[in-house]
Amino acid sequence: MVQKNILASILINNYNNKLFFKKCLKSSLNQSYKNLEIIVFDDVSNDGAEKYLKSIKNKKVKKIFNKKKISESGAINQFNAIQKSFLKSKGEIIFLLDGDDAFLENKVEYFVNFFKTNKNLEFTQDNPIYYYPEKKLKEKKVLRSKMLTLHTWPYFNPTSTMIFRRNFLKKLLNEINFSKNKFFKMYFDARAFIYIYFFSKNYASSEKYLTLYTQNIKGDTIKNYNSKNSFWWERRKEYHYFVKNLFSKKKKKHIKLFDYYFTFLVSWIYQKFN
After folding, report:
1. 240 touches 185 (CB < 8 A)
2. Contact status, residue 194 vs residue 246, Cβ threshold 8 Å
3. Comparing 5-9, 92-96, 130-134, 263-267, which segment has the lowest mean pLDDT?
């Protein structure tokens, strides 16, 4: 049995996800583990999602309505949403969830138990079930839990698979927080996994599939994760800058590997000939 006194927090970051947000919030409210709070950060939605959120009357749901985006960068706005939601939360175990994704009903219970069993654990993750709402494609399970490695960037698990112990997330948010004028393409998942890879010794991966990860076929979600376009290589280049800055902040020596030079070469070629 899971100890009832362990409070879990689900932090939902939502922006214009009206089509999927109801499913997202419902999946959180329907968790088998009941001692939880749900913090929803709405980042100035204008598609009706904000109106729907205001209509929700449930004591478990705490709402934050942002008045103005802090940046033109989705990555910077996402980081701000997670940071503000974390400050409002009180849970010992923190689950992150994007507003277009969803949890299977036993996810929170499973991982609260997992943290309870592994008392030194700082971070864990499950695996995404790829969900294609705009095409008649079957849901696809993708095993990524063994891919916590820099050599396969940017194939990190998505943000919605990430689960933290509170004290570690507090430390991580401070360590990976740089000026809002930096790292416009570095989303939270990439920042966090880089930090965990280098500076955490107490993480573990699960082979469970408990997260529905929505694939936006028409938008940029899939298009920009293609090594045949310049955006891909610009993100890789920014990733290397981020690693360099992180090591400098931690006063650690940064060793440049082959991928560093290869990325900058390909990025230069795209800029030169496109």
Report:
1. no
2. yes
3. 130-134
Q: What is the pLDDT of residues 144-176, one digit of tens each?
A: 544 445 544 556 788 999 999 999 999 999 999
- Co-location of 251 and 173 in the same domain: no
In 10 A of CB 227, how many CB atoms?
9
Its domain, for residue 106, covers: 8-220
Residue at which a domain ends, from 220, 245, 264 = 220
For residue 63, the SS3 value is strand
pLDDT of residue 227: 63
Spatial separation of the C-alpha atoms in residues 206 and 124, rounded to whole Å? 7
Which residue is listed with tokens 């095409």? 135
Q: Is 119 exposed, middle or buried (0-12, 13-18, 19+ CB in 10 A)?
A: exposed
Quick check: 102 and 25 in contact, CB under 8 A? no
- 221-226 CB contacts, 8 Å cutoff, 24+ apart: 225/154
Confidence band, pLDDT 50/70/90 cuts, at residue 217? low
Question: Number of folded domains in the chain?
Answer: 2
Q: Does 102 fall in a domain?
A: yes
Cβ distance 46 to 19 under 8 Å?
no
Q: Does 163 fall in a domain?
A: yes
Closest CA to 47 of 72, 80, 15, 70: 15
Give the single-character DSSP code of 123: E
d(C-alpha 271, C-alpha 274), whole Å: 6
Q: Determine the 3-state secondary structure of 152 from DSSP.
A: helix
What is the distance between the alpha carbons of residues 245 and 247, in angstroms, rounded to a whole number? Answer: 5
pLDDT tens-place string over residues 228-273: 678 878 888 888 888 888 888 888 888 887 888 888 898 889 888 8
Instruction: Single out the residue of 121, 123, 136, 140 nearest to residue 209, CA to CA.
Output: 140
